[in-house]
# Entry
Amino acid sequence: MILKRKNWAWAVAFLALVAFPLVFQNPAVTSIAVFTLIFMAAATSWNLFSGYSGYIALGDGVFFGTGAYAMALVSTHMHMQGGYAMFALVPLGGILAMLVAVPVGLICLRVRRHTFVVITIAIFFVFQLAAINFGFTGGTAGIQIPSPSWSASFYNLPFYYVGLALVVVSTLLSAGIRRSRFGLQLLAIRDDEDRALGLGTKVAAVKLTGFVISAFTIGMAGGLYAFFLGQIYPQFAFDPLFDISIALMAFLGGLGTLLGPLLGALILESLQQWLTLQFSSGSLYLVFYGVLFLVVILLMPQGIVTFFGDVWAKRSRGVEEKKLGGVTVEEVVGTRRA
Amino acid sequence: VNSTALTHAVIDGILTGAVYALMATGLTLIFGVMNIINIAQGIFVILGAYLSYALSVHLGIDLFVGLLITIPTLFIVGTCVERAFIGRLKGPEKTAMSILVTYAISLIIEGTLNLVFGVNYVQLHSWYVSKSFKVFGIYLPYIYVFGFIMAVVLLGALYMMLYRTRFGASVRASLADHTAAALVGIDVRRVSTICFGIGVAVTAAGGMVYGATNAFNASTSYDLISRLLTIVVLGGLGSLGGALVAGIFMVTLEDVVSVAWSPVWSTMVFFVVLVVVLSVRPQGLFGKQSARVA
# Structure
């Protein structure tokens, strides 16, 4: 019964997203919506590796940038005219990002926890500097991408639906992994990697596979992003703020949950875009964003989904069953301290 | 490439490397004691530089004398931030949460600095910033030498405090094992707050020298934090000696590459070295093996 109700909720949410640009036709609104969808896909994809395995990657901008540069370089070299055919380069960006993810993963996944976080940041900067310094990327001057000659009122629509498709793909991937044996292995690694290894999980292979899968949708998101913007510079394609943003979205919504990153990206990215429009000064916006972010983290450290999930569980089933269902975070902390 | 240029690069690297080592020591101290990564370390450096800037431009206070004000100020800022936000973090995701919380703090400070000081690049000025002297046929600005001496003095003081005082013993005990330290009666909570304060306070000194040798604005902090993190991880997270050696080594290497090859690639070498070293020694140069255990 509960499962059924859940499926209904997903279906309604999906239909609402499909109908959204038909109801709200203002290009300023749909443009915000396109960015939001791109980040929903990217955050979900980040979460399906980092959220499930506990390996907090802060260098996924590498995959985003790879997808973006794949779009820019291939379209300009093939002299494409900026029509629908350009969307075919989106999956190409995803595949190239996966290819990049293999060596990057082999290097990064040798280390754990804090060192992993820092080495992903370092590799990110290697890529950013390469994009700036190599000749074929156009350097800091960036690359102009052929843009479609669609009318202003229609322009955002194709991007919106491709973005929605990316969200669906990443959500299905994330849900599929969560329910599979592979997903359980990732969760086991998060809980206790050494024990998981001891019990026969091939941790190195599982981690690398997860890492590479997550690169796929992030690469596609990067390709779509570049096409939508119409031009890319190394600082935009390989943006350290992107790395931290998608992690933040997942944390805000609920790390390791399916709905969390979607919700987190929906709230943060649309808010961020809206705030940028509201405050002409970027600085005031930074302060506002930072304060908001701090308040949410301190009030709801487990994320919105988990927070309201707990509240909901308490109200509907009583405290007893919740305790039987699983160990709460407080209890884990309590035992670790003791 | 002539040998004078190389010597120049090495001397430059060692002199500025010591300043980076000082800032990195603050970061590694915070990590070691509290098990958190302080992303805001970069913006604290810039905050320190801007404080020195304000004191010297508006009140005409000498940069080094100004440190008597900026270091205690940042110490207080650090302890307040720790008490208000970081000390509240707990649970298995504490380290990841700390990255986000310190990042949020960094955004707030960045926005505020932009509002107060504007986004144009500024640089600190004094007679020792513009004047240089000749040694071994190389012209060195005085600020490099003064900055180096200051970094060495402060690092020396920090080491004296850590290895010769009772408080230092509690800090090292907390570094080694939180639970055990708490069990023998050390107030780990208080040690954490003070260490965070000290870790932030050293950025006032580092920031002043950084601001005198580089043009900066609030967004320069991203460049700084990525370098500082690289140094700290290369040295081994939580290793004080490692931060010192890695700081001097990395900055010197960067300067040498910049002269011998091209300044364009020198920053990249910084990160490539980290990746290569970690592939061979995952715990960093001087890190404990336990860094690998989850």
